[in-house]
Each structure stands twice: as C-alpha cells, then as structure tokens.
Specification:
heterodimer; A: Cytochrome p450; 5-stranded mixed beta sheet; 16 strands; 11% strand; globular; B: alpha+beta; Alpha-Beta Plaits; two-stranded antiparallel ribbon; 21% helix
C-alpha cells in the first residue's frame, strides 16, 4: 500500500477542517412573477425556459429573486457577457446557485478548481488541465467513442422504441469520462447518481445534501488510493503527481478537480446529445436534410449548441454595487444563463429559430472569457461522433410520445426521458 | 490580407482551427495560433472571414488588403 500523507483514508478526517458557509431559508413552489421571483428549479422553467427568458429580455431585462438568499438573472447577451468577463466584481467561488454559500475565505481556489477559482489562482490551476483537453488529445479518444456508440445502437436490436436519453446519450460521456479519469467502466451507474445529487439536489435539506455529496467524495478518495497503489496513464494519476508553485497539489485540489471533471463532463454532454436528437426527432425536415448532407453536421451541431445550450453558470457578487440599473448586494447570486444569451435577437438573426446551416454562429454555449469550458473540445468530439453514428445507423426516427419527454431540473438542461420510435 | 490572433482575448474555443485548419492551428494548451505568417491566399479570404465571424471572443482580426470584405 502506497502512503501519501495528503490523502486521508476516510472522509471523516478530511471533513474536519471543512469551512462553514451560510445557509438560507429554502423557498419552493410556483413562481408568481418571473421578473421578481424567478426560480430555475421549478417545473415551468425545466419544461421550456425560452419563452420566460424572451419575455424577461424584453421587459426587465435583469430579473430578481428573493429565493436562494437573493439573486439576479440577466437575459441580454451584453449583460451576460459583461459578467462573464468581469472577474473583479463577480466571483466563481460557488457556481451552483442554491441555498448554500461557501465562506469567502475559500476564494480564490474554491471547492472544485479551476471552475470555482478566481484570478490569479484560476490561471495556474487551469493551465494544469488544458493540455489534457486539447483537440489533439481528445482525438485520441474518438475511435473508442465511435465503437462504443455503435455498441449502444447494437443493443437496440429488436426494439421499436428506445429511450435515447437514458440508453444512448447518457452512456457516452459516462464512458469517456471514466476512461479519462481511469475509473472502472462498471462504476458508470454510480456516476449518474453523483451528478444528479450535485446538480439537481439543490433544494434538499442541508443534511441530506451533505450526505449525498459525501458519497461522491468518498468514492473519489477511494479512487485516489487505488491510483496511489497502481499509478497509470490517466488524469487521476496526473493530478496526484501534478505540481503548482513547486509543491504537489493539496488533496482538496486533486479531489475537487476530479469531482469537477466527473460532474461537469457528464450531465452537460449527455444533455447536448439528447437535445440534438430531440430536435431532429420532432423536426423531420432538418433530420432529412442532415441525413442527405452529412457535411452539414458541422453547422447543425453548433446550432444545436446555440439553441439548446445545456449549461447555465452562476456567480456571486463580491460587493454591494449599482450595476446596469439594479442594486446588487454582496453575495447575491447571478444566474449566468448562456442559453438566454444565445437567443438574444440583437446577437443572432432568427434567434428563436433553429437554422441548421447557420454559417455565422458566435454562440456562448461553452461560456465566454477565462472560464471557457475546459472540456469543450471533448464535448464537441462526443456530440459529433454520437450524432454521426446515430444518423448513420438510424436515419429515420421520431418522438414516440411527446408527452413522455422529461427534462432535467437546474443549471444543466437536457432530456432525461426521450422515447424515440426507431422503426 | 493577413490574419492575427489577439492572445489576450483568445480562450481556446478552437472555432478558428475547426473551421479553417489551413490558416489556424492550436498550441499545446489549445489556444489558437496562426499558421506561418498569417498570410491568407486569395481563395481563402472568405474562410478567414468566417473564422473571424465565429470567434466567440472576437480575438481574430484581418489586416491589409481586402480586410473590409464581408461574407457574401
């Protein structure tokens, strides 16, 4: 057994120096007015957030809520971009808007670096990760991803209706991320639970939420120990050995980054693949065009990313200030909706339409500024391969039951049940 | 016509080297680079403008002759 004193054997020891944050009253229930009481956790938002965002963009355009201890929802491209670029006034120390704010002293590192980090630490933590996620590096995973997509479709043999979210889209990033981190592929089903707990368990009571997150960190710690005993060529071993400022990374940094890659790498790409298939299933003209003209996938994919951008981020306001017409208080949330930015008609012609041959598409699905999604090249590879394989194998498909389609709740949006008729 | 990348703005989205690999490449952290001296052959001018128009960070600029053309 290899001993590395940074990593305790069990989570209890690791938890002892966990800093205390602040919690607010949990408020749930239907939204009375989206401009003064918004909530991204209510059913109306998950089912179809775009009409709400379009309405707010015209009449508000920065909505407020007293839920989650107070927060703001800008809906115009310019405001969203300005916040993404302004890391002086908006902190990333928590990027999941909920009922808990971590203490200020965890900045500039945060719990899951580098997504939770602010400058100047952010740059150095991000630099460690970038080489593993370049287009050249992720191309090495393309052939195994393609073979895996084919195996998922092989398993549809004999079925007329399949769940494209549950039985296809979901499995692709789970496998890719497990391979990257060097986790056993049979642990995949657990990852789905971790992801749901982190991203969708927002309004659970604090003790339940902590208990669920502990399962994730317990699992990651066990993986660290397995990698200490059996080092291999993967991201986990890389992070264990990586150095910053002449020292190996803190245990919390290693495990936090592993959590980030696991959580952010799965729900997001799963959502993008699912939303693209959902669109094609309900839009036969686009599906037929894409099947006939395979080269159009390059623009179609970017258009799906624009129109159905899966990821909304969050920030915390650093200090009280008057900003773009509203009075923000220190520690107010910002719900940073890249999906809303991507449908702003001042930025895009026919912003509310899906135009699969859109040539100029300067969308923000992967964010803007220093926090550009570090996995964007991986996500694009997975999305392209998933759609190429599906369209090649199943050119003709439709929604089996539109009412049975369900969408995830929270900051990552995509179909979670998507029954498609495939023959 | 020449293309240039403002490295202070580039965040490595990679739209330029996805769209026009003849003109753009990436470094070992995924940031965009201009191949050679950035000179754009006449038959690549439209593609160069396409890369400019798709950069989410507006980090690419074209300079010199024909720099003012549009995509049509």
């Amino acid at each position: 057994m290899t001993v590395d004193e940074r990593f305790p054997r069990d989570l209890k020891a690791a938890d002892d120096n966990e800093p205390i944050g602040t919690r607010n009253e949990i408020i749930t229930g239907p939204v009375s007015d989206w401009s003064t009481d918004f909530s991204h956790l209510e059913a109306e938002w998950s089912a179809d957030p775009y009409p709400i965002q379009d309405d707010l963009r015209q009449r508000c355009p920065i909505a407020h809520t007293s839920r989650f201890g107070g927060g703001w929802l800008p809906t115009r491209w310019d405001d969203i971009a300005a916040i993404a670029y302004d890391t002086e006034r908006f902190s990333s120390r928590s990027i999941i808007m909920g009922n808990f704010r971590p203490p200020r002293k965890i900045a500039p590192i945060g719990g899951t670096p580098p997504i939770s980090s602010d400058p100047p630490f952010h740059h150095d933590a991000r630099k460690l990760l970038l080489p593993a996620f370049t287009k050249t590096q992720v191309t090495r995973q393309e052939s195994t991803t393609r073979a895996f997509c084919h195996s998922l479709i092989d398993a549809f043999e004999g079925q007329d209706v399949v769940d494209a979210a549950h039985d296809y889209a979901q499995h692709i990033p789970v496998r890719v991320i497990a391979d990257m981190l060097g986790f056993p592929s049979e642990d995949g089903p657990q990852f789905r639970e971790f992801v749901e707990n982190a991203l969708e368990g927002i309004n659970l009571l604090p003790d339940e939420r902590i208990a669920r997150m502990s399962k994730l960190f317990g699992y990651l710690l066990a993986q660290v120990h397995d990698h200490l005993d059996n080092p291999r060529d993967d991201l986990t071993t890389y992070l264990i050995n990586a150095e910053l400022y002449g020292n190996k990374l803190e245990a919390s940094h290693v495990v936090g980054t592993m959590a980030l890659v696991l959580i952010a790498g799965i729900d997001t790409t799963w959502s993008a693949i699912g939303a693209s298939l959902w669109h094609l299933a309900r839009t036969p003209a686009d599906r037929e065009r894409l099947v006939a003209k395979k080269g159009m996938l390059a623009t179609a994919m970017e258009e799906f990313l624009r129109a159905y951008a899966p990821v909304t981020m969050a920030r915390l306001v650093k200090d009280d200030m008057h900003w773009h017409g509203v009075d923000m208080k220190a520690d107010d949330w910002i719900l940073l909706s890249f999906p809303a930015a991507n449908r702003d008609p001042t930025q895009f012609d026919r912003a509310d339409e899906v135009v699969i041959d859109r040539e100029v598409n300067r969308h923000a699905a992967f964010g803007l500024g220093i926090h550009r999604c570090v996995g964007s090249h991986l996500a694009r590879m997975e999305l392209r391969v998933a759609l190429e394989v599906w369209l090649g194998r199943i050119p003709d498909f439709s929604l089996a039951d539109p009412a049975a389609v369900t969408w995830s709740t929270g900051q990552i949006r995509g179909p979670r049940a998507l029954p498609l008729r495939i023959r | 016509m020449k293309v240039r990348i403002d490295s202070a703005r580039c965040q490595g989205h990679g739209r330029c080297y996805d769209l026009v690999p003849d003109l753009f490449g990436d470094d070992n952290e995924g940031y965009g680079t201009v191949l050679g001296d950035g000179a754009v052959p006449p038959d690549k001018e439209r593609e160069a403008r396409l890369a400019v128009a798709n950069c989410p960070e507006r980090a690419i600029e074209v300079v010199g002759e024909n720099a003012e053309g549009d995509l049509t």
